[in-house]
Amino acid sequence: MAGKSYRDQVVIVTGASSGIGWETARAFARRGAVVVSVARREDRLERLTGELRAHAPGCSHLCGDLGSQAFAEHVVRDTVARHGRLDVLVNNAGISKHKHVFHLSGEEAEQVTRVNFLSAVWTTLAAIPPMLTRGGGAIVNVSSFAAKVVPPREAVYAGTKAAMNAFTEGLWSDLRGSGIHAAIVLPGPIDTDIWKKLDESPAYAGPLYPPGIVVDAIFEAIERRRFEITVPRRSVPLVAARVLRLIAPGMLRLGMRRMDPVPETLIEQARARARSSGS
Ligand SMILES: NC(=O)c1ccc[n+]([C@@H]2O[C@H](COP(=O)([O-])OP(=O)(O)OC[C@H]3O[C@@H](n4cnc5c(N)ncnc54)[C@H](OP(=O)(O)O)[C@@H]3O)[C@@H](O)[C@H]2O)c1
Questions:
Q1: What is the pLDDT of residue 278?
Q2: N or C end of the chain, less CB within 10 A?
């Protein structure tokens, strides 16, 4: 077993039915943690739990929609009721919304906000009391590099992740002295199914990195009490974008806009729709 042992610690991983969450749940179980995996697809969670129990027999899953406050809070309360403690909460569940702002509806914006941001707030607020009771814990929020450098067609997705960053920063301050550590991990492009669920084609055609780099960052954030980790660490475009954001944010915005220029026809179609709707 490589890395620090989490034997008998209780860990919730949201969005565990695929991608980053799937690998995170497996990694914690391999280190001995009792993992509660959360997502909507029950068949996948059943398969995952079957595998995790070979490492930690207490592993289980909860199936439901984290866009519902009642379910998000239930996840934490049920876990604590069954296991008597909660040591680590990984808020990883998320959905993409790669869609030009001309095509976005208010309902879609609300759904992404509920799943990507509010679910993490709801689970966190429910997790703080049991963590306080036991003297500590860790809350790791899986955000996105898109929160720092916003790609075209991701205004709402990036907005939810930027909200998550600000929330986590505030948590980090408010939790000082409590023994609870709050952290964010900002993944760049990671090779998961999320890329198959985009509403519109992405302009990005660069490399996709393995989910394991995010899992390593989650462990590092917990074990070394790091607040913010961006992965991959040594990607030249990501480092260049971060530097540009600091010294020439206007240039960075122009660069992002050029990545996926808005065709004239798209504006004309949106204008025609606006006129015909009487706006
Ligand atoms: N892959 C990337 O390039 C990348 C980059 C930056 C950030 N991220 C972030 O990383 C996190 C994990 O994404 P991923 O790349 O691993 O994508 P993924 O394979 O699509 O996984 C998303 C997970 O979230 C769960 N989920 C979605 N909506 C849910 C809901 N309403 N209730 C409960 N669970 C829900 C999904 O399960 P069900 O469908 O079964 O519910 C799935 O387990 C997300 O927050 C994403 O924004 C990913």
A1: 84
A2: C
